[in-house]
Design brief:
By secondary structure, this protein is an alpha/beta fold. Helix content is about 45%, strand content about 20%. The protein has 2 domains: about 190 residues, 3-Layer(aba) Sandwich (Isopropylmalate Dehydrogenase), CATH 3.40.718; about 140 residues, 3-Layer(aba) Sandwich (Isopropylmalate Dehydrogenase), CATH 3.40.718.10. It is globular, with a radius of gyration of 20 Å. The structure holds 3-isopropylmalic acid (IPM) and manganese (II) ion.
Amino acid sequence: MKLNIALLAGDGIGPEVIDQAVKVCDAVAKKFNHEISWTSALTGACAIDAVGEPYPDATHEVCMAADAILFGAIGHPKYDNDPKAPVRPEQGLLKMRKKLGLFANVRPTFTFPSLIDNSPLKRERIEGTDLIILRELTGGIYFGERGRKDNGNTAFDTCTYTRDEITRLAKIGFEMAMTRSKKLCCVDKANVLESSRLWRETVQDMEKDYPEVTVSYEFVDAVAMRLVQWPNTYDVMITENLFGDILTDEASVISGSMGLMPSASIGLHTSLFEPIHGSYPQAAGKDIANPLATVLSAAMMFEDAFGLKEEAELIRQVVNKSLAEGIVTEDLSGKNKAYKTSEVGDWLAKNI
Ligand code: IPM
Ligand code: MN
């Protein structure tokens, strides 16, 4: 099969972790006789430095022409403490999501048997955790009307959702639940917010189309609490953009390291696959960042974008093997030897 992949390495540790995923993908392609054509493009702070724009049109064209996008991370500390910066790397990510119509963000949380004791939570709380947070990605407060009034002394951001936006996201959630344990949790704040009441009403109306799926409705504050108490009681969860942003960071540490969880963003055009972690600028260029979340994002890409299940499964098996044999970066090595980012990538590619 011919796989046309756009490669957006981005900033910070992005290029280093992307390099390892490329090694792994190329090894998989060789083994299964696929032909991958990689096209690199700029996004984030490096794109601002080069062309003054975090998601240039040229990058958008590369993404539209590709069958899938593999993305590293964006962000640079020089923008973090400057709320007045006219262009910011994160704007590139939001623009990319909007222009590619990536309205559904699939963020799984699962545990690795060999890493259970790395989790900040107790073993008995997390064993068996295997959940997916499906976050709405192109609406809500991220994209609503915002501004300043009162000579700049009052600021507002608005959260708006349409029934159609909720329906298309919830539909993916119901369908995902059908392929798993047929449990769906709608996370909202319907006791306070009107937009949440529309979420609840819309999902309730859809229940009759999926009679086998058991739906629960829970408030986001309670979910934030239960997620660290009993993560293994959840399966598929659907929620709006900002709640999903917060809950997926919370959920990502359950597995033991932020450097492990992959994600997919899907929607109207080319799907995008990226690690959940950020650009980790303190580690940039040091060859110490954990590449596994990016490698596992590549596995999601093989399966979801190309329907290549066996290839995806092989990547996951080799990742599990590296964890079990301690071929890991410093975030996971404890008192044992820490391998470099590039060494982990080489080991994975060799074992493919
Ligand atoms: C994420 C990130 C982004 C978000 C930022 C960088 C704009 O935190 O992908 O979760 O808030 O969506
Ligand atoms: Mn986030």
